Amino acid sequence: MSETMSRPDWLSYSTYKLEKATISTENEVLLWFVFSCASLPPFSHNHSCHNTINAAAPLSSGNITTKMLQEPLEVDPALFDDEDSDDGYCSSLSGYETNTIISTALHEYLLENGRRYHTYYGRDKNMLPTDEIEQDRMNLSHELFLLLLDGNLFLAPIGDAPERILDIGTGTGIWAVEMAEKFPNAEVIGMDLSPTKPEWVPPNCRFDVADAERELMHDDDSFDFVHARNIGQCISDWGHLMSEIYRVTKPGGYFELQEIGGILFSDDETLAPNNPAKIWYENISKALTRIGRPPSMTEENMTFFLASGGFTDITASYTKHPLGPWPKDRTLKLVGSLNLVAGKTGYHAYGMALFTRVLGLTTDEANKICRECALDAHNKNSHIYSLYHIVYGRKPV
Ligand SMILES: C[S@@+](CC[C@H](N)C(=O)[O-])C[C@H]1O[C@@H](n2cnc3c(N)ncnc32)[C@H](O)[C@@H]1O
Question: Minimal CA–CA distance to 263: which of 385, 351, 157?
């Protein structure tokens, strides 16, 4: 993991141990971080050292172990600066400022093909970069999705007073923030693998860093509305994710999934077999299939995911989602224009890791597919679109 990263060694080390450890509870995660971070400064080690560290026997081998046994560990005096906790404990778990410790280690990134990928939960979990370029693209795409839905953030009939709302794979958090503004009396939680929360957050909105494919860290029946948008390419175990979503949704509450479909259409036969966008989409599907994820999100599989998760009263709809500004319709022309701009970095963002890591293409080959796809959106003779799917369902009372 560490070879390709230009990170301070101590950070790679502490995170490495966490990933290798067998962790069954949140407390164990915290303990591993406390252990790792407490021992950071004195160590000088190289990459080969990493392989000698074993989660089950942390004191038994390698250069690091020797150093640990020789030098007494000093206690950080800052631990006792908290005036409210003179008994050695404070209201947070175990008396440590664990958020600070964890948030340091959560910032684990990989630089590849000119992009920055977040890797704390594993390099290949989210194949999209999370750098500023991608954050800009996500925010631009958000405006585009609002246009497609007539300004609506969602379509499910959740009523005027939802109390708790969860956004899974929240990205920059823009959807969660706007939901918090729309429902000031609701508590809105955005969760994501990556710590990319917005700078300005309304008081009724917060962000968690977690892997939705492991466990949603929330009580049963605790959300009126759960939402996820464009996480399709990241999820391998939809069955597990849906059972978790169902578990945390209140009886009578809703789950809504919005996804760009991975199939291209043209109503005037301008989608040639060698169309560059078609080639890009086909390669994406091929790579996703190879790593066991759905090759594309469709009305059929989205409906199936909700139904097999237990949701009922499922409603599926879609809008056409033009890749360029060719439509006559004013709104769709604007959507196509935004896609033209978003596509300048978006095809690269979605494509590079899948094409190079999964399909084994060279950086040049992968770049060419992404670049030609982005250029095709400028082609006035290419009148192509994909579908934007919105599927929602209700948890029975
Ligand atoms: C294409 S972005 C979409 C972001 C946001 N939903 C939006 O529509 O603007 C996909 C997001 O899902 C997150 N993600 C992927 N897999 C995840 C998982 N297992 N748990 C939590 N978040 C995940 C990624 O980190 C990324 O931010």
Answer: 385
Angle at 198 between CA 192 and CA 203, to 5 degrees: 95
At 102 the pLDDT is 52
pLDDT of residue 227: 98
Q: How far is CA 284 from CA 230, 258, 353, 376, in A?
A: 14, 19, 10, 17
From 234, 245, 350, the mutation candidate for ligand 1 (largest count of ligand atoms within 8 A of CB) is: 234
Cβ atoms of residues 185 and 217 within 8 Å = no
Cα distances from 93 to residues 26, 28, 266, 318, in angstroms, run 11, 12, 56, 45
- The residue type found at 22 is T
- pLDDT tens per residue, range 41-52: 222 222 222 222
Q: Which amino acid does the sequence have at 315?
A: T
pLDDT along the chain (397 residues), means of 10: 29 28 31 29 27 26 32 59 44 42 67 86 86 92 96 98 98 96 97 85 94 93 98 96 98 98 94 95 97 96 97 97 94 94 94 95 96 92 95 97
Q: Domains along the chain?
A: 2-107 (no CATH), 132-394 (3.40.50.150)
Minimum-distance ligand 1 atom for the alpha carbon of 118: 25
Share in percent of the chain as helix, strand, coil (round to 5): 40, 15, 40
pTM for this entry: 0.76
Output the CA 236–ligand 1 centroid distance in Å.
Answer: 13
Query: What is the torsional sign of CA 58, 195, 110, 372?
Result: positive
Look up residue 351 and give its two tokens: 């494509």
Can you tell me whether residue 254 is helix, strand or coil?
strand
